[in-house]
Write a structure and sequence with these properties.
By secondary structure, the chain is α+β, with helices and mostly antiparallel strands. The chain is built from seven helices and nine strands. The strands form two sheets. Strands 2-1-5-4-3-8-9 form a seven-stranded mixed beta sheet, with helices on both faces. A two-stranded antiparallel ribbon has the order 6-7. The radius of gyration is 17 Å and the shape is globular.
Length: 183
């Protein structure tokens, strides 16, 4: 191989590492309905998407693992913005593949009793295409950091998939505010 070929290959590889992961469910698709066990303010809670949509839009955000640094900071950010989401008529629900006992603690400590978190089953992770994969394509057993805003009619109106937690609250809040203005 020449140096030019190696440099081109290295540049292409670097681009794949820095490119954000995109969720497969596109804007406009119908969100798969589901029910999941979880926790709200430290107590067991059952979340049903179709019931939450009766009240208004749903911010469904997937995060990799409770009590990891990025996931805790993201939960804090959603907790701080809870009043703004409520003012826009939206329900926020965090999802990971953590067990309910872990979610009970996380809902109090990281979510500050402000919103519910629920346990995503393997089928739900597949339905929303949020399986975090290793470079070889195998599953890590965790979820990608992906946020969906689902309109009251069950259609996805916004998708943001990026392992950096910092823009998820800002982008989902802007989307639910836009929905409120269009009503």
């Amino acid at each position: 191989m020449t140096i030019r070929t190696l440099a081109a290959a290295a540049a292409a590889f670097a681009l794949t590492l820095s490119a954000p992961a995109f969720a497969e469910l596109p804007t406009g698709a119908r969100a798969p309905d589901f029910a999941a066990p979880g926790a709200l303010a430290g107590k067991p809670f059952s979340f049903k998407l179709h019931q939450a949509l009766k009240k208004g839009p749903v911010v469904l955000y997937f995060y990799p693992k409770a009590f990891t640094q990025g996931c805790t900071l993201e939960a804090h950010a959603f907790a701080e913005a809870t009043a703004q989401f409520k003012a826009a008529g939206a329900t926020v629900i965090g999802m990971s593949n953590d067990d309910v006992a872990t979610l009970q603690k996380f809902s109090t400590e990281a979510c500050r009793d402000k919103f519910a978190v629920a346990s995503a089953s393997p089928d739900l992770i597949k339905a929303y295409d949020v399986d975090l994969r290793k470079p070889d394509g195998s599953s890590t057993g965790l979820t990608k950091r992906t946020s969906y805003v689902i309109a009251k009619n069950g259609k996805i109106v916004m998708v943001h998939s990026d392992m950096d937690y910092r823009d998820h609250v800002k982008m989902t809040l802007a989307a639910v505010r836009k929905l409120k203005k269009s009503v």
